[in-house]
Amino acid sequence: MIATGAVGAVGVGALAWPFVASLAPDAQTVAAGAPVEVDLAPISPGQIVKVFWRGKLIFVRNRTEEEIKAAQDVNLASLPDPQPDSARVKEGHPNILVVYGNCTHLGCVPLGNEGPFHGWFCPCHGSVFDTSGRVRGGPAPINLPVPPYTFVSDTKIRIGEESNAAPKAAHA
Amino acid sequence: MSQHATTYVPKSRFAKWFESRLPLAGLVHSSFIAFPVPRNLTYFWTFGAILIFMLAAQIVTGVWLAMHYVPHANLAFDSVEAIMRDVNYGWLLRYLHANGASMFFIAVYIHIFRNLYYGSYKAPREVLYLLGIIIFILMMATAFMGYVLPWGQMSFWGATVITNLFSAVPVVGDTIVSLLWGGYSVGNPTLNRFFALHYLLPFMIAGVVVLHIWALHVVGQNNPAGIPIKSGKDAVPFTPYATVKDLFATVVFMMFFAWWVFFLPNYLGHADNYIPANPAVTPAHIVPEWYFLPFYAILRAIPDKLGGVIAMFGAIVVLALVPWLDTSRVRSANYRPLYRQFFWVFVIVCVLLGWLGAKPPEGGYVIAARICTAWYFIHFLVVLPLLGLFETPKPLPSSIAETVLGKKGGAGMPVGAAAEPSTRG
């Protein structure tokens, strides 16, 4: 009886797996996650550009001197999700900030240059982000994450590939 | 359901032949013709019939719309516009379906508040009540996925916000969201599966409705006095009394429905949904459909992601626990002077939450939403259990007939034919 039940349970589980797995991102969607290149030259200081990688919105922000300074001169202990600005940009390129463009609360697109820290402000539920994309108020639990990207030249980045990593097939 | 009293006697040879193989006519007769109905029911008891009509109307208009709609991220918006402009009477089908969802929720909210006022959830109707809660949850899932299908701005961002609720689940949240999306964000796979589920769920609702009606016909209907049928004098037969009353109420409700469809077809919707979905821009003011606003207000009232999600789902779970939270033995609020007042305070709080859910999440609105959210839970978790202990109910009438006719009595159903079904077990 127990053996029969166990075999039955395994069988049901084995049959259920393909049904669940079919709901995951399919091969086409995964393949569409190949790295994208962004030319930084046309992005002037203070400007935010929106690009898509793997269907997800990404902000590329060319920060002004004041914005960089504001992001660096922060008492880390006062942040909900403490992270120094230097850990959120690539070395030698403090002006270029690349972050995911969906609020970490429920996924709305925050408005650039808005809110008390002039970083981003989410109109949906009031989350506030600073010029480093770090959460400073509202219901968002964590900072806007930094996607994997690398500088291929001084004026070009490739999103979807981490620095110094050998090119590899993108996967989920 | 053989325990039902049935006075159906097949007459023709075919009817006898069929009845001995499938007693369908007898079932219909005992459930919708001879079924004893409390004689004191008000029009608040017609919303069950109205809801059955709304479910049927949504399924019929929905199936017709599906013949013209294309569930693809690049084509969905245009196919809905084609329904509005090119398909013969497409505008009517779509306005009936879109406004029908709102009418469905108006009717179900009246149905639920009627239940809470008259204590219809109390023994022996707990299972009947829980089936109703399941229908309500299925309705919300169906309505949410239906709103995504036109693939306008509100569709897209509503889908984003609601699916992201599940990312609050610790550890497995992101996996769940990825399985909902079928991608790394809301996109074509999401739309496609939502369409499949939006088509499926109404038929699941229909299945649970059958169980809901079955349970109702086992325990019988509650009534404004909240006391059971004790004799034939307390009841009238379902047909013609309830049949005609339900039909009349449904027709009046259809007129109300038609008023929205023909005069204010877009009033309950949102203008932003006539802008095609754009994953790079969120509408400045994003709100769900009106029937979700109280729950949305509860979500936003909690200044913590996981906490807000728990509170929102908790607001529905606590409803399911009402039969065990209410400690009073008296059903009807007509005989519960304190509960009656708390009931109306609760109604006002729910309406206020709905209003606050449509307001921006700032300043006084947030504080008001927090107070209302707190009261919503206090009502169920504190007021309901304590009232039963401290409240002195008014004396109950000795019979349903007495509440209608005074002490003199009058003609009702033949004694015996109308005994409450539960007593026949």
TrEMBL record, chain B:
The chain crosses the membrane at residues 44-67, 95-116, 128-149, 155-182, 194-215, 247-268, 280-299, 305-325, 337-358, 364-390. The keyword Mitochondrion does not apply. Residues 228-398 form the Cytochrome b/b6 C-terminal region profile domain. It holds the Pfam family Cytochrome_B. A ubiquinone binds at residue 217. One of its GO terms (biological process) is respiratory electron transport chain. Heme b b562 binds at residues 97, 198. Keywords: Electron transport, Heme, Iron, Membrane, Metal-binding, Respiratory chain, Transmembrane, Transmembrane helix, Transport. Gene3D superfamilies: Cytochrome Bc1 Complex, Chain C (1.20.810.10). Residues 14-225 form the Cytochrome b/b6 N-terminal region profile domain. Its cofactor is heme; heme b. Belongs to the cytochrome b family. This is Cytochrome b. It comes from Enterovirga aerilata.
